[in-house]
Amino acid sequence: ALIANLAAANEFQASHLDNDISKEIINSMQIYYSAGFFLTVAPDAFQKVAQHCVANKKTVAVNLSAPFIVEFFKDPLAMAIEYADYVFGNETEAETYARVHGFETTDLKALALIVSALPKKSKEQPRTVIFTQGYKATIVACNGIVTEYPIDDALAKEDITDTNGAGDAFCGGFLAQLVLGSTNVKDAVMAGHWAARYIIQVPGTTLNGPCEYYIK
């Protein structure tokens, strides 16, 4: 069972970004990631940071996060995607996006191309869309090209302990490669696969030591 207590998150306001500590953090960062859940509370705060990113040629990543975000927070999500250099989602969220926007296709590769080509505020880099689909290949679309990255070491069902957080772990692995300066999307996807594979074998976010993942 999972019982969420949103507490402080529900009280967040754009004005919280105006103090000196927040400004220092925002100015010092180069990559900014937001789950779609944040758009239910303070989309104006997201936009404020995103505008800073565009003005300073920084990177923005957004996660669709859940089908209900795609369906019931359509306008804030559309705003966020305009700023996004990277968009993450899974197959269910992508299919919901297609239905909500009236697309005739539910093909994930076609949908990834559509989202990658949506209007974009920053012209520094093309938008990259990453759709995961469990044990099936991860789909990446950018600049009119779709690439599939299969999961070569999918776990047996009996080795899976807890799938909560698999998508978040994937994003963490992917973004870690960007933080380390990699521009190779394949390396980022492989790191995402590794992180997701690790996290579904343990309860919650249990960590057994420092990360031992290295790009081969």
Mind sketching the topology for me?
Elements: H1 20-28, E1 31-35, H2 43-55, E2 59-63, H3 67-72, H4 74-83, E3 86-90, H5 91-100, H6 108-116, E4 128-133, E5 136-142, E6 145-149, H7 166-179, H8 185-199
Helix pairs in contact: 2-4, 7-8
Q: Could you list the spans in which at least 5 consecutive residues all have pLDDT below 50?
A: none
Give, in spatial order, the strands making up the sheet with the most strands: 1-2-3-4-5-6
Q: Alpha-carbon distance between the termini?
A: 38 Å
- In N-to-C order, the SSE pattern is HEHEHHEHHEEEHH
Reported for the largest beta sheet, the result is: 6 strands, mixed
| Rounded mean pLDDT score | 93
Number of helices: 8
Helix content: 25-40%
- Counted beta strands: 6
Portion of residues in beta strands equals 15-25%
The whole-angstrom Rg is 17 Å
Backbone structural class: alpha/beta
Provide a brief overview of the structure:
By secondary structure, this protein is an alpha/beta fold. It has helices at about 20-30, 45-55, 65-70, 75-85, 90-100, 110-115, 165-180, 185-200; strands spanning about 30-35, 60-65, 85-90, 130-135, 135-140, 145-150.
Explain this structure:
The chain has a 6-stranded mixed β-sheet with strand order 1-2-3-4-5-6, with helices on both faces. Helix content is 40%, strand content 15%. It starts with 19 loop residues before the first helix and ends in a 17-residue tail after the last helix. Strand 5 and strand 6 form a beta hairpin. With 216 residues, the chain is of the alpha/beta class. The protein is globular. 31% of the residues are buried. Helix 2 runs parallel beside helix 4 (74-83) and helix 7 (166-179) packs antiparallel against helix 8 (185-199).
